[in-house]
């Protein structure tokens, strides 16, 4: 069974403010180094992909359709060729990177329903489940009034003083 004596020396005891700053500083340096490595990797990959090539299979084809013959365009054409030959994974990758969805309309609707249910469950869990307030929010989202529309709405009410007097006196 764990007790405070067992936890000391294993990193679970309270640290001084100085120790906490040192640990945070080490984490910050490590995070910065990691970000720099990722940035360097992306830069090198970009340089490689945009490098012109003279490939006997791809260069004539790419130039014939008005594209530069680079590693990037050759890779894209190779992936398209694979898709044309029946490689479903290549087709799915192409669809994904061109913004096309492989989901059917029914699947997308089912996903929206699941997302809405999860959102309602979360709202109920955190106590944000006032149905009247949600109806108002839904109505306003549907209407999407602009600020000028709202100003005009209230301005019209103030300008029609006769209507207010009629309502107060009960005259029609």
Work out the oligomeric state of the chains in this entry: single chain
Find the count of extended strands (DSSP E, 2+ residues).
0
Provide mean pLDDT, rounded.
79
Kindly name the structural category.
mainly alpha
Element order, helices and strands? HHHHHHHHH
- Rg, rounded, reads 31 Å
Portion of residues within helices = over 70%
**Sheet of most strands:** none
The termini sit apart by 83 Å
Number of helices: 9
Would you kindly provide a written description of the structure presented here, covering whatever features stand out?
The chain is mainly α and 172 residues long. The chain is built from nine helices and no strands. It has helices at residues 4-7, 17-49, 58-64, 71-84, 88-97, 105-125, 131-143, 147-159, 161-169. Helix 4 (71-84) packs across helix 5 (88-97). The longest helix has 33 residues, at 17-49. The radius of gyration is 31 Å and the shape is extended.
In short:
This protein is mainly alpha-helical and 172 residues long.
Features:
single chain; 172 residues; mainly alpha; extended
Describe the protein's topology.
Elements: H1 4-7, H2 17-49, H3 58-64, H4 71-84, H5 88-97, H6 105-125, H7 131-143, H8 147-159, H9 161-169
Helix pairs in contact: 4-5
């Amino acid at each position: 069974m764990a007790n405070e004596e067992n936890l000391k020396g294993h990193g679970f005891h309270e640290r001084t403010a100085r120790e906490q700053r040192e640990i945070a500083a080490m984490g910050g340096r490590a995070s910065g180094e990691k970000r720099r490595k990722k940035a360097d990797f992306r830069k090198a990959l970009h340089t490689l992909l945009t490098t012109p090539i003279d490939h006997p299979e791809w260069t004539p084809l790419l130039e014939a359709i008005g594209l530069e013959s680079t590693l990037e365009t050759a890779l894209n054409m190779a992936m398209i060729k694979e898709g044309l030959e029946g490689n479903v994974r290549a087709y799915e990758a192409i669809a994904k990177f061109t913004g096309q969805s492989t989901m059917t309309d029914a699947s997308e609707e089912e996903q929206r329903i699941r997302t809405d249910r999860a959102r309602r469950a979360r709202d109920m869990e955190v106590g944000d489940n006032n149905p009247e307030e949600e109806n108002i929010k839904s109505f306003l989202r549907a209407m999407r009034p602009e600020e000028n529309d709202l100003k005009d709405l209230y301005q019209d009410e103030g300008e029609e003083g006769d209507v207010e007097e009629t309502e107060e006196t009960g005259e029609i």
